[in-house]
Target: Bifunctional NAD(P)H-hydrate repair enzyme
Amino acid sequence: MKVLNCEQSRELEKKAVDAGMSYLELMENAGAAAVRFMRKKFSLTNKQAVILCGKGNNGGDGFVAARLLSEYGAQVSVLLVDGYPVTEIAKTMFSRLRGTAVRIVNYSDNADTADRLISDADFVLDAIYGTGFHGSAAQSLLRPFHAVRNSSAVVIAVDMPSGANCETGAVEGECIKADYTVTFSTLKNGHLIRPAQEFCGEIAVAPIGIRSELINSQEHSFEVTEQADVHSFFSRRSPESNKGDYGRLLCLCGSDGMAGAAIMSAKAAVRCGAGLVNVALPRSIYPIVASRVIEPVYTLLDYDQEGNLQDGSRAAFFQAFSAASACLIGCGLGKSKKTAELVCRLISESQIPLIVDADGINILAENINILKTAHAPIVLTPHPGEMARLLKTSVKDVQSHRLEYARNFAKEHNVILVLKGAGTLIAEPNGMAHLNMTGNAGMAKGGSGDVLAGMMASFLAQGMEPVKAAVGAVYLHGAAGDRCAKELSQCAMLPTDIIEMLPGLFLEIEQESRLFSAK
Ligand SMILES: NC(=O)C1=CN([C@@H]2O[C@H](COP(=O)(O)OP(=O)(O)OC[C@H]3O[C@@H](n4cnc5c(N)ncnc54)[C@H](O)[C@@H]3O)[C@@H](O)[C@H]2O)[C@@H](O)CC1
Ligand SMILES: [K+]
Model:
């Protein structure tokens, strides 16, 4: 689903106007859409509705809603919280309140009356600021904001809760906490990015008469992954095919004490359809790993006292690497000096797509410039802690700038960056970002990341475009996690259960396309 930033949203409105609509018509439709939403949810007759209006076009939407709510039998008061309207269309909509039953109160002149109206209201419509807001709300607004917070009214934000930055999702000062937000034509960044997202309540996207061709063709740089997108990444598995047609994945994963990471990533990879999976691991953990996942082949690595790969192992590893169509580096790998050298060499010399996870990322954090030497597509899958290490900042800082930092990193280092956590983001070097909405807190357990990395690597090995492999794996991993939570509880579900839920998801994809292979 397409998500627009503020500029793109304005561009879309301009295109609608160029195609024959007027700004006034758009505003009328926006106000009407907010009221339509309210009528669907609530009875309005004789209810007290208070509309807080700002002086820009968001306020204009509020004036329209006030007129219509009054027509539908509500007792409506408009509170001008920031003075009189300043834009021409908002002024026009304000003038259309003349002769209606709508009461108009200038907040600064009658603050006590206004506060009483807010306190007695059944509904508060927040039409103070929309896409035009940035920074923090003026001091003069703190009192009405406070009155709204103390009221038991249902709060409906028009386009965006006032005080939240629609572009960045930042909330720098006070912000209206809405129960519902009605936005227009498409979602905007701020509806999805924390902290603004937390102030939106339930979000409804309402049409305002802009033709779907215009919406579909509007340039965008952010989208929410939907099931249909992911299903379209897979195609039919040919009846004539053999294992060689479904990729050769090499996993450089596992170390003493970290056998589980190798097991889970390899198991997830074979469950996701790869033709051949080869796990390169220290000989010491081979018995435990191979006894738990029997489908892969194994390349056993012997190390000397200094941690160097012995000659025979080195030759065997590079032979496997040269035969692979993708390589997963990092799950439970450890980060000794010699391992770090090997990882850097692979990043620098690889001709095949690489997924770098866990310790692979920790190694990169100390050798970030090696990315400049890479030729092949690289997908990095940091959790917020690893991202903080990559950026040499705090987890808190990462979490409050997720979209910005993921995008910047992907652009600067020419990688696909998968920033994990609630609402995993996938950022491409060209600036496009994808938000994932599947998954739940039951997945916040050691091992979930290994499963994800194995899934992604499997798709990549089968020839799926790197960004689709990332977006698809993140979506299906979360969807499988959601099924686990339903059947097993968030508390008790295990990362290995996520793998066991994958067959059900692939069955659905196959039923749609009658057998598939990753595209
Ligand atoms: N452009 C259009 O054609 C349409 C716009 N619509 C509405 O118009 C809104 C955008 O309107 P505007 O661009 O006029 O912007 P807003 O109405 O969101 O806010 C703009 C006003 O807020 C002020 N402002 C910004 N940051 C401030 C701060 N920190 N403290 C105090 N004041 C601040 C600005 O100076 C300006 O006066 C949308 O969110 C939507 O609700 C809808 O009517 C649909 C059509
Ligand atoms: K608003």
